[in-house]
Structures are given as C-alpha cells and as structure tokens.
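fold-stage: in
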Amino acid sequence: MNVKDNEIKKLLSDYKKFSVYGLSPDADKPSHYVPLYMKNHGWDMVGTYPKNHSVGGFKIYSKISDIPAEYRKFLDVFRSSDKIPDVVEEVIATGGVEVL
C-alpha cells in the first residue's frame, strides 16, 4: 500500500497511545529504536514481548489481551511476515484493535 506522508501524520495524530507488538530488547533492531524514538517524541506506548523483559523503559506485556484497552486501539507490529497470521488471530480473539 502506498500511503502519503500527510495520511501517516493524520493517523498518528489521532492516536497518542498505542502498543508495539514485538518490541525488541536488541538496540540494533528497528523494533527497538523506532519505538524508542517515537516514545522520546511524545507518544505514550507500551510493548509486547513474550519474555516480559524491560525494554527501554516501556511497560511490557506478554500478549495482546494483557494490554489495557486504550493502548490496544493502535497496534504497531514488528514481526516477520510469516508470523503476521498468528498476530491477526490474536487481535481477532482479543478485539479492540482499530489500526494494525
């Protein structure tokens, strides 16, 4: 999908709280430094990571259903494409996600 910058800005301005699925403790991965950058620029975020490690000061949950509803509306996913069907199944089972 080709999304224009102004559409991305509008979408991000509508959601100030969101969650990052697959937040990594590895500082060299985009799934670590992109959310950290966004957090440092005003977004209120939580993360999911199966091992419940502390990652960059984020509150970490082990699964989507554990995330408070106000953070579940926008789910930013950092997973390989072969894992996306599992994420979608978890989203459908949990509900409350508006943007994936």
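fold-stage: in (second)
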Amino acid sequence: MPEYVSHWRDILDEDKSAAYPGSKEYHGIDAQFGKRARLSRVGVHLEVLKPGRRTSWPHAERDEDEFVFVVSGRVDCWLDGHVTPMWAGDFVGWESHTGITHVVMNNSDEDAVLIVGGEASRAKNQFWYPFHPKRNKEIGALYWKDHPKPKFGPHDGLPDLLRAGLPKTRSATAANEAARKYGLRIQKKK
C-alpha cells in the first residue's frame, strides 16, 4: 500500500495498553491513523475496546474537542456520572471548555470498535481527572485547576467487569484509584 494508506488491522498496537503511569488498568487497543498519516491538526485513531475496559479514565479537557463514533459493538457513554448506551452508528462529541467529564466503557461481552478523534494535542491543553487526584498532581501544569464543577450522577465511571474484580469501596474516587492499582484482575486469555 502507498505510505499514507493503511488498513487498521495492519497498524493495530499490541495489547499492552495500560496508558497511565503507575496503573495496571488496560484500556483500548489503538490503530493510530492520524500519526501514520502525519496529521498535525487532527488526532484520529481506531480503538478496539475489549469487554470490561474503558477508553481512558473519566476526564475533561480544557482546550481540545473530542469525539467517538461506534463502528461496531455496544458501549456505554459516561457523562458526569450518567450512562447512555451506544450502538454501531452512534456518535458522541465533547466540546472543549465545558468541563463535561467523560469516558466510553465496554460493558458488553464482545469487542467494540470505535473511531476516536479530536484536535491534535495542543501544547497548552489542560486536563481534569475527577476521580484521580493523584493523577491531577502528577501532571503538574497540565492540570486544569479552574475547571467547571459538575454535579455528578450516581455512576462511578467504571466498567461493570472491572468494578466486580475490585475491593468494595464507598466512593467513586476510591473505586477508580483501586482500578488504577489492581486493573482488571480477570484478563481474558488469548
């Protein structure tokens, strides 16, 4: 194939997707189209989200718009503590500066395939992880200190399978920190 043309299965990363430092939690497996095509303003990748995983930790971004398009499978979109089911063909986007915290989770029994994208990383973009105060400290100047303060719904932002394998906790923050520490104890064998 020509240099800028690729099939997602040919560029799919290995399943070693613990994305955050010090975390044992696995996230999606990426095929990074945007980097391969050397796009400088748009970040886009295909993500295979296995059962019991989520795309990231719940977070909000100050300066970057983001979106997810469900190619196949069924996922749950978590927005400020409320969950909305999504199926193939569904789309969700998050506008920058709103402080809407979000994550996509796979609570089904099958892989989901997503197109994830947004603006390419901006040098001064800042983040907020509502259930990961340690991460907010770790990222230093990248922490969005004056983020909007949403009223969270009842959901803790964890996929069902991940939550089931963790010690019982009383708060969403404690549950998410446990996920960071332990990850998904029941990793499916290949």
